[in-house]
Amino acid sequence: MTAPHRHPHTDPAAHPEHRHDHRQDGHADDHGHDHPSGLKGWLHEVFVPHSHDAADSIDDALEASGQGIRAVKISLVVLGLTAAAQLAIVAISGSVALLADTIHNFSDALTAIPLWIAFVLGRRAATNRYTYGFGRVEDLAGLFIVAMIALSAIVAGVESVRRLAVPQPLDNLGWVLAAGVIGFAGNEAVAVYRIRVGRRIGSAALLADGVHARADGFTSLAVVLGVIGVWAGFPLADPIVGMLITAAILVLLWGTARDVGRRLLDGVDPDLTQRARHTLERTAGIEHVTDVRLRWTGHRLAIQARVCLDPDMTITMADQATAAAAHDLRHALPAVGDVDITTTAKPAHPAITGR
């Protein structure tokens, strides 16, 4: 048997694992995804507004957290004004049903507070106990928001069934319609804003909060459509539309729970994994990519890779190769945080075996 050639600087026996931990911020290019077009594409965007693992994420972690906190603050103000406007209509119309819906909107607006706390905690440095930092608090907030969306679906469904079984007349229809329009407009504006920022910074939790606002907007839309149905001489329109809206919220719930659950289980878009592998394979000096692992920590993407280098490389050349690989990864993938590349030497000549 012919023994493989090993360079003294990259010999695995002398340097079993040559580790390079690159934590500098870089640039993340956008990348395209295939989407349905036309009406199907619009429906897909409304009901399944998933993040594509943050294709549009920005680079700097502190800036991303700052944008997340700003989005939460603005959302709280808009939803607060929406609920206040509905409360004014309640005072004028005296509708108990509208009062209950207004209280519901106020409570839903406050669900953004755990996400605000998560963004603040995510900025804290790692400790001896939490050595990976506190980015996962954001994913826990996303789990809480998923639970709130589920609660919205349950409340809407139970109320619709109750009104279908025991029809109740709607009073002050004009005021009810006005409150529903205000509720839908305010919640949908917040939903669009949260989803856009969530995609930009790579936050599944903020996306989930946007979906939560959209679910509440659908509930208000059900009120509007119900009033129109009653005016058209079909009093059962209110509970029937409510049941349809409940089904729509369940669709939103499924997509959001899937995305948040994947984050908690360290799932990523397979396209990101393939792009990371191809980027490493194209880096000069890297002969073979043994393993690539990606995971989200909050809204930052951590990358670990094990590669084999050209056996004729020196340690300095190996450092340059891995630095170039980390730089290329930050250009090829979104919201990259830590990049940890472990290198070993590849034999200069393959071993010859025989019987």
From TrEMBL:
<dbReference type="GO" id="GO:0006882">
    <property type="term" value="P:intracellular zinc ion homeostasis"/>
</dbReference>
<dbReference type="Pfam" id="PF01545">
    <property type="entry name" value="Cation_efflux"/>
</dbReference>
<feature type="transmembrane region" description="Helical">
    <location>
        <begin position="215"/>
        <end position="234"/>
    </location>
</feature>
<keyword id="KW-0812">Transmembrane</keyword>
<dbReference type="InterPro" id="IPR036837">
    <property type="entry name" value="Cation_efflux_CTD_sf"/>
</dbReference>
<dbReference type="GO" id="GO:0015086">
    <property type="term" value="F:cadmium ion transmembrane transporter activity"/>
</dbReference>
<dbReference type="InterPro" id="IPR050291">
    <property type="entry name" value="CDF_Transporter"/>
</dbReference>
<feature type="transmembrane region" description="Helical">
    <location>
        <begin position="240"/>
        <end position="257"/>
    </location>
</feature>
<dbReference type="GO" id="GO:0015093">
    <property type="term" value="F:ferrous iron transmembrane transporter activity"/>
</dbReference>
<feature type="transmembrane region" description="Helical">
    <location>
        <begin position="173"/>
        <end position="195"/>
    </location>
</feature>
<dbReference type="GO" id="GO:0015341">
    <property type="term" value="F:zinc efflux antiporter activity"/>
</dbReference>
<dbReference type="InterPro" id="IPR002524">
    <property type="entry name" value="Cation_efflux"/>
</dbReference>
<dbReference type="Pfam" id="PF16916">
    <property type="entry name" value="ZT_dimer"/>
</dbReference>
<keyword id="KW-0472">Membrane</keyword>
<dbReference type="GO" id="GO:0005886">
    <property type="term" value="C:plasma membrane"/>
</dbReference>
<feature type="compositionally biased region" description="Basic and acidic residues">
    <location>
        <begin position="9"/>
        <end position="35"/>
    </location>
</feature>
<protein>
    <submittedName>
        <fullName>Cation diffusion facilitator family transporter</fullName>
    </submittedName>
</protein>
<dbReference type="InterPro" id="IPR027470">
    <property type="entry name" value="Cation_efflux_CTD"/>
</dbReference>
<feature type="domain" description="Cation efflux protein cytoplasmic">
    <location>
        <begin position="269"/>
        <end position="339"/>
    </location>
</feature>
<feature type="region of interest" description="Disordered">
    <location>
        <begin position="1"/>
        <end position="35"/>
    </location>
</feature>
<comment type="similarity">
    <text>Belongs to the cation diffusion facilitator (CDF) transporter (TC 2.A.4) family.</text>
</comment>
<dbReference type="InterPro" id="IPR058533">
    <property type="entry name" value="Cation_efflux_TM"/>
</dbReference>
<feature type="transmembrane region" description="Helical">
    <location>
        <begin position="143"/>
        <end position="161"/>
    </location>
</feature>
<feature type="transmembrane region" description="Helical">
    <location>
        <begin position="76"/>
        <end position="100"/>
    </location>
</feature>
<keyword id="KW-1133">Transmembrane helix</keyword>
<feature type="domain" description="Cation efflux protein transmembrane">
    <location>
        <begin position="72"/>
        <end position="265"/>
    </location>
</feature>
<feature type="transmembrane region" description="Helical">
    <location>
        <begin position="106"/>
        <end position="122"/>
    </location>
</feature>
<keyword id="KW-0813">Transport</keyword>
<dbReference type="InterPro" id="IPR027469">
    <property type="entry name" value="Cation_efflux_TMD_sf"/>
</dbReference>
